[in-house]
Design goal:
Layout (H helix, E strand, L loop, with lengths): L10 E2 L3 H7 L1 H20 L7 H10 L1 H15 L7 H17 L5 H25 L4 H19 L9 H8 L8 E2 L2 E2 H27 L3 E2 L2 H24 L6 H19 L1 H11 L1 H6 L4 H27 L10 H11 L11 H20 L4 H26 L1
Parallel strand pairs: 1-4
Antiparallel strand pairs: 2-3
Helix pairs in contact: 2-16, 3-10, 3-16, 4-11, 4-14, 4-15, 4-16, 5-6, 5-7, 5-14, 6-14, 8-14, 9-10, 11-12, 12-14, 15-16, 15-17, 16-17
Main location: membrane
Subcellular location: Cell membrane
Protein name: Xylose transport system permease protein XylH
């Protein structure tokens, strides 16, 4: 009798149907985003996907995308941050005052604001990581503290900010490559590079897993995911290339942050320690994870991202007001939960939070185009959040 053949390298996660069942939450949110887009495209008479509306969708929701990245890390580690909206108002006020009252060059003011965000994160991270006060209490106090400081700093609206600063959120990349028919050449090039980068990175990651005999998704699922992702990027590229400005500057900022933090969470010791702490804190401690340092760095990072969001928000408005950042923390938390981050911690992806943020953004824009009352818009978003969390809990119960 001949010897059995060697098993193929790697391990696939069963059949395509079984794999989709195991990853129902991840693919369910992607499907939900597509369904919501199609629904509003129909109910708004095709207005939702106007090229200029897509650019506006990105610019209006950039702050949620940025804050959701940090919030995923906070929630995965088993914490929460209620202060980010107030921190955005405080740092945005400081940034505007530096530019308007103290003649600080706007680029330097931006860098100082982000660094000060890190200082705020150090303040909160110290109390959480080293004093042992729950993050809920510390950040609740931070929400009141920094909102109060924002009101003290920005007694009246601080406007008259320079055009270069305002272009961070309102401007687009210059049409350096001209136009192909009516499509912006630089935007098309960025889209092509993005699709090629996605394909190369996904193929290399899959080959690496196979070489190390680690579990990979079934090949049909891999191909479908790659094709659908490439098609989505291509379509968004086409719409942006047709828009009045082309590629929004803030989209490049958000894209770089998504790539950076996806790498951190998936490929670094720091990212693995965050997942370990959220999944099983006692086991992480016994494994030698320096939990205090990790918790401290999580909140320093959240502060830095709040600084970036403050710059983006102030730039978008073209002014600083004490009321800026209202409910930003709720938007970021909702985006994380809707995007698949587990309420109990230990599970969550940056890309999932981005999908969650876009679901919230599409809901806002679609309902606004339909002239739905803002009160009902809030009610709809609250309902979506409850459904997403309930789905997560029911999915866990089913898996037991």
């Amino acid at each position: 009798m001949s010897a059995p053949a060697d098993p193929p390298p790697g391990n696939t996660s069963g059949t395509l149907t079984a794999y989709l069942g195991q990853n129902l939450r991840q693919y369910g949110m992607m499907a939900a985003l597509v369904v919501i887009v199609v629904l509003f495209q129909f109910t708004t008479g095709g207005k939702l996907l106007y090229p200029n509306n897509i650019a506006a969708l990105i610019q209006q929701n950039a702050y949620v995308l940025i804050l959701a990245i940090g919030m995923v890390m906070v929630i995965v580690a088993g914490h929460i941050d209620l202060s980010v909206g107030s921190v955005v108002a405080f740092l945005g006020g400081l940034c505007a005052l530096m530019i308007s009252d103290y003649d600080v060059p706007w680029l330097l003011a931006v860098l100082i604001s982000i660094v000060l965000g890190g200082v705020v994160g150090c303040w909160q991270g110290f109390w959480i990581a080293y004093a042992g006060i729950p993050a809920f209490i510390v950040t609740l106090g931070g929400m009141l503290l920094f909102r109060g400081l924002a009101i003290v700093l920005v007694g009246t609206t601080v406007a008259g900010l320079p055009a270069g600063f305002n272009d961070i959120s309102n401007g687009s990349l210059p049409s350096a490559l001209g136009f192909l028919a009516d499509l912006d050449g630089l935007t098309l090039l960025i889209g092509i590079v993005a699709i090629a980068g996605l394909a190369v990175s996904q193929i290399r990651a899959r080959r690496s897993l196979l070489r190390n005999n680690l579990r990979v998704e079934p090949f049909p699922a891999f191909v479908i995911k790659l094709v659908v992702s490439a098609a989505a990027i291509a379509y968004i590229t086409y719409l942006l290339a047709k828009s009045a400005g082309g590629t929004p500057i803030v989209l490049i900022i958000v894209a770089l942050l998504v790539l950076l933090y996806t790498f951190i969470m998936n490929n670094t010791v720091f990212g693995r320690h965050i997942y370990a702490m959220g999944g099983n804190l006692p086991a992480a401690v016994l494994s030698g994870v320096k939990t205090k340092r990790v918790n401290f760095m999580i909140f320093v990072n959240m502060g830095l991202l709040a600084g970036v969001a403050a710059v983006v928000t102030t730039s978008r408005a073209g002014a600083a007001v004490a009321a800026a950042g209202q409910n930003f923390e709720l938007d970021a938390i909702a985006a994380a939960f809707i995007g698949g981050t587990a309420v109990s911690g230990g599970i969550g992806k940056v890309t999932g939070a981005i999908i969650g943020a876009f679901i919230m953004g599409v809901l806002n824009m679609g309902l606004s185009i339909m002239n739905v009352d803002p009160a009902w818009q809030m009610a709809v978003k609250g309902l979506v959040l409850i459904i997403a969390v309930a789905f997560d809990i029911l999915n866990k119960r089913r898996g037991k």
